[in-house]
Design a protein that fits this description.
The complex is a heterodimer. Chain A is an all-alpha fold. Helices cover 66% and strands 1% of the residues of chain A. A two-stranded antiparallel ribbon of chain A has the order 1-2. In chain A, helix 2 runs antiparallel to helix 14 and helix 3 packs parallel to helix 5. Chain B is mainly alpha-helical. Chain B contains 6 helices and no strands. In chain B, helix 4 packs antiparallel against helix 5. The termini of chain B are far apart. The N terminus of chain B is likely disordered. The chains are: A mainly alpha, B mainly alpha. At the A-B interface, helix 5, helix 6 and helix 7 of A face helix 1 and helix 5 of B.
Chain lengths: 589, 196
């Protein structure tokens, strides 16, 4: 049962742990690239009337910063933990469909490469229509270059990766639980993965359709979003935000899951109100479908629509608030250990609460009309997505790093990383509440001195530099840990869930003996399963075909990009060939 | 039993994982078609120029192709029943029948599309054309995938590589086929029968 090594073993891998690592490193590189784009934005905005980048390049920077962070960094970083941790938490040997899992990863990688390749072409025609790509700005007559084509085709490819991953994790969590692992014994991270997976498989088809319409408008001359022929640009907004708001919860729920694992471990207490936390997560998943038009108050949908969406938006704050109080109650009376993971989790609670509160201020249409398209909104969603999602994901990285690599990240360096990130994050984004309310519009490449926001912008830029230094510390920590990190052992934190019952890193088959689960906190409530010498354990082999099938998709996307019909048949043939070889190769799950 | 007999895995829900995954896929597809159908309905009557649905839709002809597609669902049921009882002779007949039924439907759609284009309804002509072609075209693409799937199963049956131990494979193909059929019933009702 020795593990294969070498390049081929990685290209053909179907092991959820390896795929998790591939997801992690790809997404981490994209997080650094997205961060670099943010730094360039902040340099441009450091002083008024700056000319560091042109307006066109600035459009590309903020578009790709948002698109990269949402689709190529935060979602796949969460997916890295879905892959690595969920099968371990539920007591499984792999995911339900190991090759589909490999397919998801390769599609994600190729979609990422496809969209970012636009930076490398002459005149770097990178996407420049904003991450939500409002029609009619993205239509051919206003944006004739290939920029938007890269964006919409790249997103289409990335969406397929998310859909495939969603099906896989739904079935894995529902069907591959170890005996005794009832749904109400499932670790909260796995629960939130399940809810997120349902959101992915339901939200992504909607943006698929929206993007197909846009592609047809641009490539085939239809008029889906063009008012000249009776089309309505607001249709794009509805479809985009019908996807886009569930997407917000796709981004935050996994981080909430991580925090719900980290806080109990380092408080040495079970999660307070487990069932309520789980049901709140499920309720957020459902309610996330009923709030999308709060992104569109300034469209003028009328008083009834505005009132309904204002109410649903305020209501969704309730299950979110419930979770926050449950986390606080988990801390109460606990034996708190301020490890780096714990600090990031506590940072999550504080910063996410600030982002949540500013979010509730947008729920009121009259207030929202003052805030729309200003830096106030930028402040809000960075408190939610950086202060929330990223702090949660950092907590997960420090928490599960020893499980994934066998070595502990340095705690002193980790705390330096935490404090630089915490201070940098607040310095960067807190002033934006004020710059926004003072009237500084977002998505504009510069601002006038007369607006009186010079100093606050400089503070934001200094904060961004501190954030960047924090990331350098983190990267150094990772580098140093490779050789010099303390060896972790199976359960360095005294965690309660099943992933801590096996060696770090786990053997290729995960569990020598599939555990029999009798409680919600198996490692706290009972001694770990007796060591039994494993008999023959079947481990799925490798396969080339998921990667081959995945390669068909960017090939097909080249056809509308280059307006060359025959390429679509080549790409389609590669896809179909890959699927047939995949379906009929000998492969036993 | 051939070497390809799938081992019966323990699953937490007692339901085959592939089947559960496929149900999730169908749920996802509902959102895809839901978005397309909603767009069609929202844009109904908003075209600024003709041809209009009333001028161009041929309900009698499409009723025939609808009937054909519904019948192919019956043949799908018979194909699965034949595979389950190990009657591979009839399984081959019914699988090929489903594929032919689907192909006939696609032939009707090809005829319909080309006659519409001749009469001036293109995707670029108006919103009705754009939403109609993209909705029914997406459905037609699904039928095409289904036909290829049925032909694949039929060839496997001819090769003797499909037996009762693969009943789940055929059942999942059937789920897909029936789903595509149900979607057509919705499209036929909303686009053809209730046209404005």
């Amino acid at each position: 049962m020795s593990e294969a090594t070498g390049l081929k073993s990685w290209l053909t891998t179907t092991d959820h742990k390896r795929i998790g690592k591939l997801y992690f490193w790809t997404a981490f590189v994209m997080f650094l690239i997205g961060g670099l784009e943010a730094e360039l934005i902040r340099i441009q905005l450091a002083k008024p009337e700056n000319t560091f980048v042109t307006a066109d390049t600035y459009n590309q920077l903020f578009t790709m910063h948002g698109t990269t962070m949402v689709f190529m960094a935060l979602m796949p970083l969460a997916a890295a933990f879905f892959n690595y941790i969920v099968p371990l938490q539920i007591g499984a040997r792999d995911v339900a469909f190991p090759r589909l899992n490999a397919f998801s990863y390769w599609v994600f990688l190729l979609g990422t490469v496809f969209m970012n390749a636009s930076w490398l072409l002459p005149h770097h025609p990178a996407p420049d229509g904003g991450w939500f790509g409002y029609a009619t700005l993205t239509e051919k007559q206003f944006n004739p270059g290939p920029n938007i084509d890269f964006w919409l085709l790249g997103l289409q490819i990335l969406g397929i990766a998310s859909l495939a991953a969603g099906f896989n994790f739904i079935v894995t969590i529902l069907n591959l639980r170890a005996p005794g692992m009832k749904m109400m014994r499932l670790p909260v991270f796995s629960w939130m993965t399940l809810v997120t997976s349902f959101l992915m498989i339901t939200a992504f088809p909607v943006i698929t359709v929206a993007l197909v319409f846009l592609m047809f408008d641009r490539v085939f001359g239809t008029h889906f979003y063009l008012p000249s022929a009776g089309g309505d640009p607001v249709l794009w907004q509805h479809l985009f935000w019908l996807f886009g708001h569930p997407e917000v919860y796709i981004l935050i729920l996994p981080a909430m899951g991580v925090v719900s694992e980290v806080l109990p471990t380092f408080s040495r207490k079970p999660l307070f109100g487990y069932t309520v936390v789980v049901y709140s997560g499920v309720l957020i998943g459902f309610m996330g479908w009923g709030v999308w038009s709060h992104h569109m108050f300034s469209v003028g949908l009328g008083p009834i629509a505005d009132s309904v969406f204002a109410l649903t938006t305020m209501l969704i704050a309730i299950p979110t608030g419930v979770k926050i109080f449950n986390w606080l109650a988990t801390l109460w009376g606990g034996q708190i250990r301020l490890t780096t993971a714990m600090c990031f989790a506590l940072g999550f609670i504080g910063l996410f609460t600030i982002g949540g509160l500013s979010g509730v201020t947008h729920a009121s249409p009259p207030a929202d009309l003052q805030q729309t398209d200003t830096y106030y909104v930028v402040a809000h969603f960075h408190y939610v997505l950086f202060g929330g999602t990223m702090m949660g994901l950092f907590a997960g990285m420090y928490y599960w790093w020893p499980k994934m690599t066998g070595r502990l990240l340095s705690e002193p360096l980790g705390l330096v990383h935490f404090w630089l990130t915490f201070i940098g994050m607040n310095l960067t984004f807190f002033p934006m509440h004020f710059t926004g309310l003072l009237g500084m519009p977002r998505r504009v490449y510069t601002y006038s001195h007369d607006l009186g926001v010079d100093d606050m912008n400089m503070v934001s830029t200094i904060g961004a530099v501190i954030l960047g230094i924090g990331m350098i510390v983190f990267v150094y920590n990772i580098w140093r840990t490779r050789k010099h990190g303390a060896v972790a052992g199976p359960n360095p934190w005294g965690g309660a869930t099943l992933e801590w019952s096996i060696p770090s890193p786990p053997p290729v088959h995960n569990f020598d003996v599939i555990p029999n689960v009798t409680s919600r906190l198996p490692l706290w409530d009972s001694s770990p399963a007796p060591k039994a010498p494993p008999g023959h354990i079947h481990v799925p082999g490798g396969s080339w075909w998921p990667m081959v099938a995945a390669a068909g998709l960017p090939l097909m996307a080249l056809a509308p990009l280059t307006h060359t019909l025959w390429i679509v048949f080549v790409g389609g043939a590669v896809l179909i060939y890959g699927i047939y070889r995949w379906a009929y190769e000998p492969f036993e799950v | 039993m051939s070497h390809a007999a799938p081992p019966t895995h323990y699953t937490s829900m007692g339901l085959d994982s592939r089947k559960m995954g496929f149900w999730a896929f169908i749920g996802s597809e509902c959102l895809l078609f839901g978005s397309l159908i909603s767009t069609y309905l929202v844009y109904q009557g908003r075209s600024v120029s003709g041809p209009t649905p009333a001028q161009i839709l041929n309900i009698p002809v499409t009723s025939i192709s609808t009937f054909d597609l519904l019948m192919s669902s019956l043949w799908m049921v018979l194909a699965l029943a034949a595979v389950q009882r190990g009657d591979m002779k009839w399984a081959k007949v019914w699988l090929l029948g489903v594929a032919i039924g689907g192909t006939i439907f696609l032939g009707f759609q090809f005829y319909e599309f080309s006659s519409f284009v001749r009469e001036g309804l293109t995707m670029q002509a108006n919103l009705f054309g754009a939403t109609f072609f993209i909705l029914t075209g997406t459905h037609g693409a699904h039928v095409t995938v289904g036909v290829l799937w049925m032909l694949t199963l039929w060839v496997r049956a001819l090769q003797g590589k499909l037996g009762p131990q693969h009943a789940m494979t055929v059942e999942i193909a059937g789920l897909y086929w029936h789903f595509v059929d149900v979607i057509w019933i919705v499209i036929f009702t909303l686009v053809y029968l209730l046209h404005k």
